[in-house]
Specification:
heterodimer, A: 283 residues, 2 domains, 35% helix, B: 150 residues, mainly beta, Alpha-Beta Plaits, four-stranded antiparallel beta sheet, 8% helix
Amino acid sequence: MLDVAQEFEKNPRQKILNDYVFASLFFEPSTRTRLSFESAISMLGGRIIGFTDAGSSSVSKGESLRDTIKTVNNYVDLIIMRHPLDGSARFASEVATVPIINAGDGSNQHPTQTLLDLYTIRQTQNTLEKLKIGFVGDLKYGRTVHSLLLALSGFNCEFHFVSPRFLAIPQQYKSHLDVKGVKYSEFLSISDSVQEVDILYMTRIQRERFSDPSEYEKVKNSYELSKNDLEKAKKNMKVLHPLPRVNEIRIEVDNTDKAYYFEQALNGVYVRQAIISMILGLK
Amino acid sequence: MKELIVSALDQGTVINHIPSKSVWEVVKILGLEHFDHAVFIGMNLYSEKLGNKGIIKVRNKFFKAAEINKISLVAPQATLTIIEDYNVKSKTIVKVPDKIIGIVQCPNAKCITNHEKIETRFDVVSKKGQLQLKCHYCEKVAEKDEIKVL
């Protein structure tokens, strides 16, 4: 799939979806995921119907997800869906006869983000093997971290987990890495890890997670990436972020050769073109 | 101490070594509240194995293995004795099945199964020690203590 995405990167405007209609059902807000799917389809000539929040659909009248999917299923060739409940995409796939792409189901999975993260890592490092990856921020609740971690655990990588103690990577993921014999270390500050990693995968720490706001003020500098932090970084190191960013990467980092998060967001288009065209048997 | 006499079964099934607190859950799982033939239910009986046990005798009913294995969720040490013509025909211990369908509620409040009319499905990921079930939909792993039988 990553190789097909690479083909689309070279030539993203192939009119292979001219005869196809897609549903984009976003039951909760999204910027990058929805727009990159819609951009991916538009560039390939496909047409999109759907809604951008549940309030503008019959869900606001109390319609079940089952009925919404069974109805939309009649109108389109493929459904792209984001929903706030865990497991909603799998359920939709059992109700629908057309393919369902999971664009995020609650706190469970966000598989297309994981694929674009893998694509970006391979693009910047020319491999997915034997890399040292640092994950920074909210490692307890961040679904992008969990999914990427599982995906990378088969590539002989080593992980650094940088987070406040109460947002540390959950035990179930550490157990998974132990079983697979994957090496990992935990740190409390970016500065303890930044010089060793090939990829620094930043995530947002939500202020609301802290019961005492003054606690956030105390630790926030340890998880806010500055230009200064990057001085000791390896030459090949790149900073990624699933976005949206709030304070965790200072704007000054954007102009360094380490910043790669906007390119990462662009890769979402090529990877989603690959996913759609492969599901429809066109590639 | 006086003993209460319950007639021996001529034919049917005896489910023994049920924890007393789980007897009604077993009744519910097996749908015995709607059963037409005689059902004897005993609770708080002395047991060497469990200290305190429950027992259910069901006349004219022979459960399939898949049916009876469902009760392993709440009565993992239960034994099943098939009676024919007042004699014991077979005696087995329940086994935890690999999949649990339609009888357990997912403890994850944000799981789709708690919001839509869906038959719940779980894979049994660990049978050793603490029983663990993984929801087919939300993929969260639930420990035995979190499990609620529907």
